Amino acid sequence: KKEPELQIPAYDDVDEENLNDPFLNALYAKDIFNYMKEREEMFVLKGYMEKQPDLNIEMRAILVDWMVEVQENFELNHETLYLAVKLVDHFLATTMCLKENLQLLGSTAILLAAKFDERCPPCVDDFLYICDDAYQREELLSMEVNILKTLKFDINIPVAYRFLRRYAKCGRASLETLTLSRYVC
Amino acid sequence: MSLSSMACNNLTFLFFQLNEVSESPRNSFACDSLPPRLYHTLQVRKLRGHRNRSNSDPLGGKNYTQSYQWRNGLRFGTAASYLNLEKLGEGSYSTVYKGISRINGHLVALKVIKIKEEEGVPFTAIREASLLKGIKHSNIVLLHDIIHTPETLTFVFEYVQTDLAQYMTQHPGGLHAHNVKVGSTWECYIKSMGNLPFFHLRLFPGLARAKSVPSQTYSTEVVTLWYRPPDVLLGATDYSTGLDVWGAGCIFIEMVEGSPAFPGVSDANEQLQRIWAIQGTPTEETWPGVSSLPNHKPEHFRPHPPRKLGHIWKRLGLVTKAEDLTSKLIECCPRRRIPAEAALQHEYFSSLPPQLAQLPDMVSIFTVAGIRLEPEARNAFHPFRKERCSSILA
Fold first, then answer.
1. In this structure, are B191 and B147 located in the same domain?
2. Do B148 and B246 have their domain in common?
3. Which part of the chain is the Protein kinase domain (chain B) (predicted)?
4. DSSP code string of B231-269
């Protein structure tokens, strides 16, 4: 049986054809990829759920589903959603959180990820609204600082979707294949 | 308004450790090696001598020796660990102070950012801190510490004795041609350093944006008007690294000439007029696609023919190949603009040692044999010191 890797074209070829298009940054594509791979190793997550007395895996799953909905509603980039989930996980890996505050954590994480990566991030009012006014502005803003402090402002975390986009480009995968792959990562 | 007054509202107020020739290039903190006590005394003495010239005096004339003492048990991350010495500048979202660390006596730059009541931590601060966290590079200021209080965030940076903006202020009328060349390599090497692919070249006040493989772009208000390329001025949002190449070109001209290349004061239209007056009003031939940009309104712009750059910026024409390099850096059409890597291969740089290309990130270019700054012409007469004396006497 043939190794599947052999069928994937070397990514040098993929970038070469785009070198004339400065908007695709083909010149830096390999550097960026290596940089992300290097950084990814600094953000390896360990299972944390058993240390969270008030939370369980189902609650996290519900939260992430809700975050997906928020991303669709605000028409945010996929990367923003992935980063927000990362922020939630890294926060929970070190800090105890009550279940009443889980949604606050999730929505604040999206706010932070959007501020980091979106051209026009939604405003705080939008986030208060999507939480159905369950939280006050002060709570959201203090959670924002709380997350930043807990993660020591180190929120430039490589997300799976960036790698997936790259692999899809190198493998010349169709948009259908790329979309389907998102279910896996 | 000068570069230096803008430097503080910007991400990286920073960049080049451009020191005077007499100093060793990377060791801008000559004082670091002194014992804290002695250093402290020096600092206080220096402050007294200069107090009447300081922009602001956060200590309000209090007795420094009492308020300023080395303490044990001071930690990073708390405001008490740093002492403000003087205000260096103020920007739209932050104020920068020169300060001193009570932990180790190092000089620092304290960038104080107001947390907005409505929107929380400014996105610029989030991007700046999170991106700088991961960088150690001899041409980029180190972010040492972050202090949080309910109303403010303070970023503690290494103190850079002279940044490019200050250096240019101190040496008006254009820099020494050789120093411009050495300085320009910094601009381009930041770009081509392997570890920093995520960054736009940040030589001017502007947002360093994380750049990722899928090309998505951000606000059209990305860089200060003077350094904003025409495609962005015309409303393009699909800009890329060419944004910085344009800015690099503008700074290059500014270093050579001693005055900004396109010092627009009001709005994008005026800025564009200034560019067209020199580069020629673009047409579909000189810039395919220009007419479909959102803010392209040919009725607003008088048609200008392109002019020879050496006629406008006289000193550019005096240096071999400088004019040619400039014309490629400030090419209006972004797709025709030279990439940073190619710019470094330009003949203009051919007189510099080739080892520059292999320099590791944390190594200063001054370690390469043959790389040094020449004294600035006006420096020989100490014009800056003279000014200082006269202002004290007045």
1. no
2. no
3. 82-349
4. HHHTT-----THHHHHHHHHHHHHHHHSS-SS---S-HH
State whether B254 and B324 are in the same domain.
Answer: yes
Could you tell me if B304 and B277 are in contact, meaning their C-beta atoms sit under 8 angstroms apart? yes
Residue B207 CA to residue B205 CA, distance in Å, equals 7
* CATH code, domain with B331: 1.10.510.10
CATH number, domain at B112?
3.30.200.20
Distance CA B302, CA B275 (A): 12
Q: Do B83 and B228 share a structural domain?
A: no
Same domain, B289 and B170: yes
Tokens of A84: 């927000």
ipTM above 0.95, yes or no: no
Q: Does B79 touch chain A (CB under 8 A)?
A: no
Cβ pair A35:B217 closer than 8 A: no
A22/B241 touch (CB, cutoff 8 Å), yes or no: yes
For chain A, say whether B241 makes contact (Cβ under 8 Å): yes
pLDDT in tens, A127-160: 999 988 899 999 999 999 999 999 999 999 999 9
- Measured distance between the N- and C-terminal CA atoms of chain B, rounded to whole angstroms: 24
Q: What is the spatial distance between Cα B268 and Cα B300, in angstroms, rounded to a whole number?
A: 12
What are B298-352's pLDDT values in tens digits?
887 888 888 999 889 988 888 888 899 999 999 999 888 988 778 878 888 887 7
B111 annotated to a ligand binding site? yes
Residues of A in contact with B341 (CB under 8 A): 27
Nearest CA in chain B to A138: B117
* Overall domain count for chain B: 2
Looking at the domain assignment, is residue B22 inside a domain? no
Nearest residue to B230 (alpha-carbon basis) of B186, B180, B278, B190:
B278
Cβ contacts (< 8 Å) between A79 and chain B: which residues?
212
Residue of A nearest to B219 (CA): A119
- Chain B's closest residue to A15, CA to CA, is B213
Q: Tell whether B356 is covered by a domain.
A: yes
| Minimal Cβ distance to B130: which of A24, A121, A155 | A155
For A85-99, give one letter per residue: b (16+ CB within 10 A) or e: bbbbbbbbbebebee
Q: Range of B127's domain? A: 79-158
Contacts of A162 in chain B (CB under 8 A): 212-214
